[in-house]
Amino acid sequence: MLLIGGTILAAGAGAAVAADCEINLRSADTHPAGYPTVEAVRWMGDQVKERSQGRICLEVFPASVLGEEKDTIEQTQFGVIDMVRASFGPFNNLVPETQIVSLPYIFRSPQHMYKVMDGAVGEQIAEGFAQHDLIVLGYYDGGARSFYNGQKPIKSIDDLKGMKFRVMQSDVFVDMMAAFGANATPMPYGEVYSAIQTGVIDGAENNPASYDTSGHFEVAKYYTLDEHLIMPEVLAISKVTWEKLAPEDQALLKTAGKESVGVMRDLWAKKIAESEQAVEKAGSEIIRGIDKTPFIAAMEPVYAKYVTTPEAKTMVDTIRSTE
What residue range is the signal peptide (predicted)? Predict the structure, then answer.
């Protein structure tokens, strides 16, 4: 039996199944079981096992069982973990190209993001990941982040002025909020509920699924679909693991990984629809169809700060010209 990952599987059902395979791969995810990313990689594992006639097994470890995102990324780079599903945020300082596709309003819609990431721009970013020992198998959907708060409906950019919003600990996010005329308050995700409840902040921003599952809708009933950030995520395999595989097995994983992208995106669309319906049923007001033009125009100083090299400017132009 060949164990690709650096750590032997713990005893139990997973180990028993793995014992039947020649190659055992472990994939890490911070999301819980049932989440679209987790289920898409599990689907991939089923396909890989079937197409390899039981030679290759892929087990997904959800809910940060193998560590938090930053830790699992590093372990995958070293080959301790074989695969990881991760957001682009932790890579912004490592793979410069990921910072460009993390800019506010760089994508017009989720469909625009899919077309960009599945094309030449995605291939260019994959080359950046490969330089850091990660082989991209596909790009998932991290969702469209929008504002929610407990004070008032946000229908225009003027409604944001002076409000306090929690953001991730990211310079881009802080600068984005300043450009909107709002105040950024970086804080851990787990503190957001109580911070809104006690008035430390007015609200936060995230995708509809997170707004729902976190329970934030209970203390912030106004949710505005401004979609200021449409985030791709990456599914990657360790270069250490990759180079141990035969070419035909590499091809099998590449194909199954690419196919899992469509599965994930379909599951995500269903999850978003379910979450929006659930929060509205619970009393939230979802503000749709706002004019995004002033929001987009306000991002000019953010782009001026972060899009400074000829390469970055070319990528921005390529993304914007993609139809």
Answer: 1-18
